[in-house]
Amino acid sequence: MEAVRAMSKQSSKKRESNYVTTVRSEACPAIAANIFRRTSQDGHTYLDYEISRSWKTASREGYSTRFYARNRDGIKEVADLASDWIEQNPQAADGLPERSLNGRRRTSENTSPAVE
């Protein structure tokens, strides 16, 4: 049986206040990458991402960092999307408003999309 992380209050808040945005796979919408703003020990800010898979049963739902072989294409797509987003939005590491791949603007203070 697969080990999973149950959905919690923390996951609904994206676990950290330095959450920036989420990108999802079109091939497998259950697979997504959350992009975060981090600070190194020497004070340098940078962006990185975490990939997860959502799951749902009749009585529970949650997220897992474990994947099946059939998830390969979705994982590749999400890794490419997240990497592209980070490369196209270097200002996001400095806490400035970012532009997501779908043209919406997000900030760490307000993660709801605002259409331009």
What does this molecule look like?
With about 120 residues, the protein is an alpha+beta fold. It has one domain. About 20% of the residues lie in helices and about 30% in strands. The protein contains two helices and seven strands, in the order βαββββαββ. It has helices spanning about 10, 70-90, and strands at about 5, 20-25, 30-40, 45-55, 60-65, 100, 105. Strands 1-5-4-3-2 form a five-stranded antiparallel β-sheet, covered by helices on one side. The radius of gyration is 15 Å and the shape is globular.
Overall pLDDT: 78
Main pleated sheet: 5 strands, antiparallel
Low-confidence blocks of residues: 1-12, 97-116
**How many strand elements?**
7
Percent of sequence in beta strands: 25-35%
Give the strand line-up of the largest sheet: 1-5-4-3-2
Radius of gyration, in Å, reads 15 Å
Summarize the amount of helix as a percent range.
10-25%
Could you say which structural class the secondary elements and strand pairing correspond to?
A: alpha+beta
Return the string of H and E elements.
EHEEEEHEE
Our count of helices gives 2
Overall outline = globular
- Number of spatially distinct domains: 1
List the helices and strands and how they pair.
Layout: E1 5-6, H1 9-12, E2 19-24, E3 31-39, E4 45-56, E5 61-64, H2 72-88, E6 98-99, E7 105-106
Antiparallel strand pairs: 1-5, 2-3, 3-4, 4-5, 6-7
Briefly characterize the structure.
The chain has 116 residues and is α+β, with helices and mostly antiparallel strands. The protein is built from two helices and seven strands; from the N terminus they run E-H-E-E-E-E-H-E-E. It starts with a strand and ends in a 10-residue tail after the last strand.
